[in-house]
Amino acid sequence: MKSLSLLALAATALLPATSLAQSFEGPYAGVQIGWNNDRAPLPDGAATSTQERDSFVGGIYAGYDHAVADNVVLGVEGGFQIGVDDRISGANNLVAVDQRYAFDISTRAGYVVGDSTLAYVRGGYSNSRVRLSDVSATGYETENLDGWFVGGGVEHKLINNVSARLEYRYHQYDFDEDDLERHQVLAGVSYRF
């Protein structure tokens, strides 16, 4: 009888911890808005200099999380983003880079803190559709730039199936012999199905 009581007590103690991670389990979708800081190496006469621009970004995302331990969550996520007014021009506006849109796929690992907050890190693949303009040539050309990104954030449950998150990301894309960099701060709202 005493061993049954101890077993019941142990099971009761484990249930809340398990349900914490499970509150972030399953499929979800959301919308996000935020800030970009893009940096691109562009020709500046005979040399190259890094030009940068701040802009607004918006997008959508969807993913799936799975609770692998009491407070540990692993997941995958895909997203699509469009920047607004993010064209970067070189000296004298001779050359410009305009990121039209980007998509990404990533994995994330998180730890549930408190009753309803998930702190996580993220990393994955990113692809940006870029329009390159050169006034010395006619028109423009469009390229897809492959890259990678890392980041981290916090997601907090607001009500049963709705959560809000704040996240930082660093992207790096292959761009000619140099790299195009993007820093982002994103705020999102998710619905978990």
UniProtKB/TrEMBL annotation:
Coiled-coil parts of chain: none
Subcellular location: Membrane
Predominant location: membrane
SUPFAM superfamilies linked: OMPA-like (SSF56925)
Pfam entry (one): OMP_b-brl
Domain Outer membrane protein beta-barrel: 8-193
Keyword Signal applies: yes
Protein name, entry field: Porin family protein
Organism per entry: Alteraurantiacibacter aquimixticola
Lineage: Bacteria, Pseudomonadati, Pseudomonadota, Alphaproteobacteria, Sphingomonadales
